[in-house]
Amino acid sequence: MISLTELKTLLAAPQKIVITTHHKPDGDAMGSSLGLYAFLIQKGHHVSVITPTDYPDFLQWLPNNSDVIVYTESEDRAVQLVNEADLIFCCDFNTLSRINELGEHIRAASGLKLMIDHHLEPEDFDDYRHWNINACAAAQLVYDFIKNELQEGELINKDVATCLYTGIMTDSGSFRFPSATSAVYRIAADLIDLGAEHWRIHQLVYDNASENRLRFLGHCLSNKLEIIRDFNTAIITVTAEELKSFHIATGDTEGVVNYALSINGIKLAAFIVDRTEKVKLSLRSTGDFPANEICKKYFDGGGHRNAAGGSSSLNLEETVAKFKSILPEYKTQLLQ
């Protein structure tokens, strides 16, 4: 590991820098990455943001989005930038498997790896770590990294503030999750003072759905929602054929699980979808129920206590049956 002093010395002179984040990036992944990008370019660094995969249209209005390189679309260029980088910032993930094939290129790269993340159990691939599982978002940690570690808060301009506010807003569930502490609200207020137009950001992220997405959501709630009252659990399942019939694009399924969790009395919600290559699970819970424990223990995943994800090599029907078979183990917690 390098020290903060050593890092400050490195950042005092122009460096070749790559910033990357997890596959299928969400609002926090893109907000933290592009917020860090907007900060670093002010210091004269040569910076590239590389995402392992594509990401939702409703995030592509973010400042400097046009500079993002998608690995699956420009593999040779991405690998060259990784190999030439002096510093590689890894935002919103802490294991290289979360960035698919790009992870092995980063593991082999000679550049220093710097992790900014809030997930449990980090892999030891990094040379510098700004990590806190109590942070509501990686974007909160980028803010803390700039303002408190580097003490360069004066470089949080409108572009930086807009990106970081987006990351905090989306990963805190619009400030309704327990992780949205008073400190988070004070950071959000500071970002608004620094130029983040909170009302516009919310509109661009949440009021920007396609017709296909709304029709798909209606189908999920009308036809695919199953309530298991004996365990205060709700499940929505989606087949690969349904994804195709509704012309679902990247990001269109995001947040569907939250509708299931919003039902009165539901403590655990699952969105289980056949992505052809694997079945993906997205779990949400309330209170102290450990959604992340289920994902880690049974579905090769993890995450936060109230928001976690995993995958299954079984088919959709078998995965749903496996999920249901697990519920009795947690009956006491689900019925509290």
3D structure, described in words:
- There is one protein chain.
- The chain has 336 residues and is α/β, with parallel strands linked by helices.
- The chain folds into two domains: 4-206, inorganic pyrophosphatase (n-terminal core) (Alpha-Beta Complex), CATH 3.90.1640; 211-335, Diaminopimelate Epimerase, Chain A, domain 1.
- The chain contains 14 helices and twelve strands.
- The chain has helices at 4-11, 27-42, 75-84, 102-108, 138-149, 158-171, 182-193, 198-206, 211-224, 240-245, 256-261, 291-298, 316-326, 331-335; strands at residues 16-21, 46-51, 69-70, 87-91, 112-117, 128-131, 225-228, 233-238, 268-274, 279-285, 302-303, 307-312.
- The strands form two sheets. The chain has a six-stranded parallel sheet with strand order 3-2-1-4-5-6, sandwiched between helices.
- A hairpin with a 3-residue loop joins strand 11 and strand 12.
- Helix 2 packs parallel to helix 5 (138-149), helix 5 (138-149) crosses helix 6 (158-171) and helix 6 (158-171) crosses helix 8 (198-206).
- The longest helix has 16 residues, at 27-42.
- It is globular.
- It starts with a helix and ends with a helix.
- The model has no long low-confidence stretch (mean pLDDT 96).
List its traits.
2 domains; Diaminopimelate Epimerase, Chain A, domain 1; 41% helix; alpha/beta; 6-stranded mixed beta sheet; 6-stranded parallel beta sheet; 18% strand; 336 residues
